[in-house]
Structures are given as structure tokens and as C-alpha cells.
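Replying to the earlier thread about multi-chain prediction with a worked example.

Input:
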Amino acid sequence: EAYSHSDAADVRANPDPSTCLGVFGLSLYTTERDLREVFSRYGHLAGVKVVYDQRTGRSRGFAFIYFERLEDSKEAMERANGMELDGRRIRVDFSITKRPHTPTPGIYMGRPTHNGGGGGGSSRRGRDSYYDRGGYDRYDRYDEYDYRYSRRRSPSPYDGRYRSRSRSRSYSPRRY
DNA sequence: GTTGAGCGTT
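Result:
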């Protein structure tokens, strides 16, 4: 079958290997340093990014882990997928996106309707094509995403170790 | 300490 690898659902189910991992199903209380602690175990990290809700400031329950070496990210993906962290079974996959979306400017970026002419316009119509979204545009159906990946390996060396619920109880700034 | 599906500009 001449199957296109650019099919949206396929991209989601089978992301290409990348140094960027997406981690999903996180506890709201899992922080970037928690993730760094866990993932640095597999190699040098180039960055860790928890995605927060812009309004509430709370974690959206997923994050991105950047490795420096592809071998390490592969290893981490294999081993950390299905791991329990802060009481949640996390899913780890190669990220299909590599970086945040470019914010929309909120202003007109086209050229003027009159006298636009040749030289001056800084119009950038092709902006959107720069978005690194891995070639999918629709979110059609992927509720069957990858349960087969859920058993890639045994849930890891972290059996009881990272259930520290004692963390957030430290600071309770008393008000007078 | 909402318990959740989820691929992104703190």
C-alpha cells in the first residue's frame, strides 16, 4: 500500500525518533526539577519544559524533555514510559512538535492595500509554514493512540521511590 | 492536593 507517512493519526501514533520527548499524564504537582531528576538518569538534558496553563499557572499535565543525544532520548523513552511518578502512570513518547507555537501577533501582517509596491513591505505571509507541527493539521481521531506502547518495558526502577507526597507541605507562609 | 485527555511562549 502506498501509505502516506504524513497521515495525522499515524504521526501521533508513531512519532519519529527525536531528542525531544513528550511526557503526558503528569501529576499537577510534578515540577521541572522532578522531571530533571528522573530523566537526567538517561543522559544529559538540554532542557525540560512543563506546560503550564497561562491563566491559572497550573501545570497542564504534560511536559517536554530535551536530550542532547538521540541515543539517550531513545533509552529514556523506552524506560520511562509507563513509569509511575507522583502517583501517576506517565506516558513518554517522541514529541511530534519540537517547540512552542509561535504566538499570533494580533496585528495585520500583510501589506498595505494601497501603494504597497515593491520595496518596503515587511509582509510575512508564509509565517505559519514555519510552525513546527510535524505535518498534521487535524486532530481527527486518535483515541486509539498507542496502548500497544504501554508495555514497552516494565515500569521501572522507580517503584516506590518517587511517591514523595511530602514535598509541597514544606512552605506554608503564615499570614498574620 | 479534583480525580485527566493532553503535543507547547510563565
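Residues 1-5, 116-176 of chain A have pLDDT under 50 and may be disordered.

Feel free to reuse this layout for your own posts.
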